[in-house]
Amino acid sequence: MHDNELLCDPHAHLSRRTLLGAGAGGAMLSTIANHLAWADATGVTDKARPKNVILLWLEGGPSQLETFDPHPGGPYGGEVKAISTSARDVEIADTLPQVAERMHLGSVVRSVTSKEGDHQRAIYNVKTGYRPDPTLVHPSIGSILCNEFPEELDIPRHISIMPQNFPARGGYLGPVYDAFKMGDPQNPVPDLNTPVAEGRFTRRMEDLRWLEDRFRKGRLGDLDQNRTLHKSSTDAALRMMSSEQISAFDVSSESKATLNQFGDTPFGRACLAATRLIGAGVRCVEVTLGGWDSHITNHSLQSGRCEILDPALAALLDRLVEQEMLENTLVVCGGEFGRTPEINKAEGRDHWPHGFSTFLAGCGIRKGGVYGATAAKPKLDAGNPLDDVGNPITIGDLHATILSSLGVAYGKEIQTPIGRPLRISEGEPVQGLLA
Known about the structure:
With about 425 residues, the chain is an alpha/beta fold. It has helices at about 15, 30-35, 95-100, 120-130, 140-150, 200-215, 225-230, 230-240, 255-260, 265-280, 300-320, 395-405; strands at about 50-60, 80-85, 90-95, 105-115, 160, 180, 285-290, 330-335, 340, 350, 355-360, 370, 375, 390, 395, 415, 420-425.
């Protein structure tokens, strides 16, 4: 079964909801983590270097209780235990032991809230910072970053690895800012080699240019730029085919030890590829790990996903530190919402947008911190769900924080194609997360 088959059917929620039923352990940290535990908490970045973002997208709704916000021993804690981390007084679930040893590098937000509990709407909300609007499509973070800081690169500057149903899009900025989609990096990027001999291929391109020139005569001046993108897409593809930069996609040149460090799974290889691509000049890489929608057998499903996430995220942070890229690369790890405190009769947890977790590291994010909190014994008042959340932050505020750390003027207004002025973000940065 593919991960994208594991998202629940929203029409089935009613029957699932009818199933609803009404100390923290420690862990010894590694020697390396102990030496690094009290690292510099300033998070200062080099403003002269371009800033980048890696989004580890956990599609389906990871459980905050089984990852970054455990409440063991309580009525809703489930089967996880809490373990100590390399950040002072910060504990996370025992499903992420390797990440625990790198928690001094970033901050956990435990109080993200939204008004969207359906997968498609919530994914749109988190990826764009706006709730769905039938009148336009908003751009994703990577699209905004590439639009605000234009650069020339032979390979795409915005890449989505193993996307599922909802890859990052350019929205009203235009399809030129859509993410370039690719699969498991163990396989070569398709269609980069010419299917015929070089001479024949050159003649084909000359014939295509002649045909395009004839076609454009007498037509709209912006036909390619704002409508078809045919010529610009063809030119970009030709540059990519002949560029040495495509080697950044190829993880086969990495040692077996390095692959094993990341977990040697499709997601692990994708995280490794993300570091290579950022090093080559790509501004945004989105890596998807699906299969978090745990309406049944929550603990085993969430634990299984964490077995993949844990080594990949830990190794990604290590590599960014080793290559001195973390200061100017923001790592965001999270999904569209969390899971309910209650465990239902099918031993699952359902959708929960009222206080879930996101991990942030690098690029000026405060180190070794926790922002917000959820109650270990929540009231679960349906009319006031935020009563159980300390220092709640909205999706808009989370987006503004991310964009601010990337050097984007989050309050800037952009004219949409229909002439409608719209702020890049409708939120405000959370100062407690910024160094």
